[in-house]
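USER:
Before I trust my own judgement here, I would like a peer's view. Write it directly below this note and I will take it from there.

ASSISTANT:
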Amino acid sequence: MFRKEIRSNIEIQASPEAVWKALTDFESFREWNAFMRPVVGKALEDAKLRVQIRPPGGRAMAFRPTVTKVVQNRELRWLGRLWIPGLLDGEHIFEIEPMGPDRVRFVQREVFTGLLVPLMAKGIDEQTLPGFGEMNRALKERVETGGEGSAGK
């Protein structure tokens, strides 16, 4: 089984609760998240989502992942598949790591597994990973500058 993991993180001057609120308010993604929109559904375990990603310089791709883990203010995971299990599966993981009062490290990563990983590796590195960075910076700006997810900042 082929495997590839990508990861991007950023420090955000905000509480875990404020970051979580912005991250799980999928309806507001249209306002600030150029990489991942729309996301339709709820951040609840076993919920089905509709997700469209728009990698910088790449084509938009739609997925119907299932939420696999929800730890409020800490972690959100979903698993998406391309057509059939084992062809190209992607576990998307968002982690919020407290670093002090009103300071967190936001980690976005994805673990790809399946037969198509070697064929998709270049596109993952050149398009998907930059999209993670773009989304992380937009989330930071939204939370730190008083967007809806800022919890009163």
Q: What stands out?
A: The mean pLDDT is 93.
